[in-house]
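To whoever is on call:

I kicked off a structure prediction for a single chain this morning and the downstream step that reads the tokens threw a length-mismatch warning. I double-checked the sequence; it's 132 residues and nothing unusual in it as far as I can see. Pasting both halves so you can look.
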Amino acid sequence: GRSTSSGRHATEKKELEIRRWQQHEEQMADQVEAQRREIDELRGWRQRAQIEAAEALIEEKATRARQDAERWKHSEESMAMKVSRQRTEIEELQRGVRHEAREVESEKRARESLHLMLRSELTSKESVLLQE
């Protein structure tokens, strides 16, 4: 009778060991499942964080682009004002030059007519002198 009881004992021991392994495998499977869920959650967070970071970057770039456009607009406006001021100055200079040219021309004409008068006076004096 001893061999059967020791045989039964060995069988029970084996069954117990098998159950223990099954429990261990189930625990491991549960842990793996929990870790997989955690990884998925982390992946979701990371994707959301990346999307938020990308959106923030895009917003920052858009803001910078708007500021640059604003700055360009201002500098374009100030350039346009500068150009217009310079154009006005040039026009005023041209008017001044034209005015001076007219004055020089009229002075030249006045001198020429003075010369003509003097010459005609001299000629008439010469003729008077010659007649005497």
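Update from on-call: the warning came from a stale cache, not from the record. Cleared it. Sanity check on the structure: The helical segments are 2-131.
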